[in-house]
Structure prediction request, 567 residues.
Amino acid sequence: MSTTKNSTAPMPAVTVSYIPGREASENLGIVFGSSVRSRNFLFDIFAAFKNLFGGEVRSYTRLLDDAQSEATSRMLEQAKKLDADAVVDVHFATSQVAYKAAEIFAYGTAVRLK
Amino acid sequence: MEEVILPGILLTILIGIAYLTGRVADGVHDRALKRDESLLPRQVLDSGSNIPGDIKLHDTAMVTGKVVIAEDRFRNLLARLRIFVGGRLSAHEASITRAKREAMLRLRTNAKGASHIIGIRFDSTQLSRGMIEMIVSGTALYTDHRPKGGFPSALPDDGVNISHRNLLIEFLSASTAFLLICWGIYAASGLLVEWASHEISVEDEVAIWSQLEPELINHHRTADDRSLAENYLVDLINSIPKTALGPAAAYDFDVVIVPDPTPNAAALPGGLILVHTGMIDLVESENELLSILGHEIGHYNGRDHLEGLGREVVGVALSAMMFQTDAVLTTWIAGWPKLLTDLDYSRSQELDADNWSLKILMAKYGHVGEVARTFEKLGNMQGGHSVMDYLATHPHPQDRVDRLYKMARDQNLPMGEPVDLEEAFEDFLVRTGEIPESAREEGRKFSLTTTKD
Prediction:
């Protein structure tokens, strides 16, 4: 019934409701992780310039990247606290909590696997 | 100084109160959340949309939990400092996490009696500055199933999502970084402005300024638009030998008399000199009046008026960039550059301008009598030296008096009899045909500040 846990392997997190090839045995509830971040004013100025010409605003993409990986790792940390094996049905939400600051919010269902 | 210190103290007190009330509100909310979460019945929470196959479903319903949480002023300020500097906004993390827990709590309270809530979705927006709206929605399943054991009764501990840093330390580090950045920008822009103000020619300055402030520029104002007193002052400036004016000779000077009882005068770009009525009331002779005007002309030669203006623009832009529409803060911070400008004006530039005043008096009258008379009066009004003088916007008037007399002695400049201001004004009125020669003998008095057109 229980699987041998490898603590060094990253906990799987998927956006579908099952871990392919495995079966969930217990639902441990919602876990979430959020990260609120900002770039500094220099990047804000560059981004404003970029807004004139169009194109990808790389500095903000990186901001979202950083925030997303932090939010995900925080979510997994919560799942670990619940002794979960995986997080399924992961969703992301972003919001602007403050001007020029982005929040990335990851949430999912922590499950134990058979 | 006062206009910066006093609001600064008030602002600090306000922020301090916001900090304290914010902490209290945090604590109260946190305890309430813990208590209510522990009272909730066990429910299976699922962000996926699968209905478990092994249960008997009676009913389903859509449920939501909503909450709007406001940030306190202290956190708001802290967040803004942090946004400027960059990095993680730990002040926001705590409140946004509490908002999520509260929304979840309400969702589950609304789904009372349900054994499962599936398809849980979070959504959040910023309603207005510092106000976060959090909506969580899901589908409640009412079944025979009674979940027991396990963990799903409450949202997990929030310890993971909040960087545990002391807010005051965070505030100190963020504001120090912010001030350093501001100082750097300000110093750099100061150098730039200084360079630019010396590079820009008088013609360019007038051309630029006439675009910005067309109604203030002198070639839009003719002698008819000015009052008699203003015409007299312009006439006085134009009577100075051009060679004594230095680079400022290129200006077509205009004078506006401002009804203000404080004895003051100012040089605006484009050759517009403002003189307060308080200054005209203070001076008694034409020489004394010209020493003031000469001082302002000296500022044009030093290009000081452009520097001050440029710095003010940079300062206001900086504070607007940082605080956007926050009226209290912007107005307070906008006061800073002005003060710094004045401080910068003071020591070297004011004294340079005094030198020009001396030179212009000498060229016009052949002597420098009364050159320091106004400063003597101002010195008497202000009293003796005090500690504040080291911070004051101008050198102490008495120091300038001593310095001017010393310079006059060193250069062997003669001290002559002054020309009475009222007589000089009457001369001007007769010369321009405003009053007949006979009016003078009637003993009518004409004063600069009371004669209107």
